[in-house]
Amino acid sequence: MKTKPFSVIILLLVLFLLSAVASAQETKSGEHAAETMKVYYMAFLKSGSERGQDSATVAAIQQGHMAHINRMAEDKKLVLAGPFIGDKEFRGIFVLNVGSMEEAQELTEQDPAVKSGRLSVEIIRWYGPVKLSEIEW
Fold first, then answer.
1. Fold of domain 5-134
2. Residues 47, 92: Cα–Cα separation, whole Å
């Protein structure tokens, strides 16, 4: 049976994040889960249908994509971001610290790479440690 690279990536991400959850709960023993956990939105960036742009256009889209990431981080709406390595379909991830699925969708749709069709996005709700929102960029 062949394992998809995405499954392995998700498993490793879940294991890493579970250890962070355990650590956060140990440091604040006695607190309720609602005080140590919260809802985030994981945005999986996937290869979009428009991948045939020329190199100058791709460079401009990438520059805008990085500026969008930095802006979300400055606004404290982005907790983590980064590319996946070696996968052609799944390109990267955003972990968003926002109040609703609609806000997560609006933020990701503003990304120049998504607007241009180079990337598409799939967003899911995720329950993770509050401490993640304290990461400084």
1. Alpha-Beta Plaits (3.30.70)
2. 9
Here the contacts of 15-23 (C-beta below 8 Å, separation 24 or greater) are 17/128, 17/129, 20/128, 20/129, 20/131, 20/132, 21/128, 21/129, 23/129
pLDDT of 49 strictly over 60? yes
The highest-confidence range among 15-19, 21-25, 29-33, 82-86, by mean pLDDT, is 82-86
Q: Which helix (H) or strand (E) holds 60?
A: helix 55-74
* 81: Cα separation from own chain's centroid: 5
34/5: higher pLDDT:
34
Question: In the chain, what's the furthest Cα-to-Cα distance?
Answer: 56
Q: For the chain, which residues make up each domain, given as ranges?
A: 5-134
Q: Can you tell me the distance from the alpha carbon of 101 to that of 41, in angstroms, rounded to the nearest whole number?
A: 7
pTM of the model: 0.75
Mean pLDDT throughout 63-92? 95
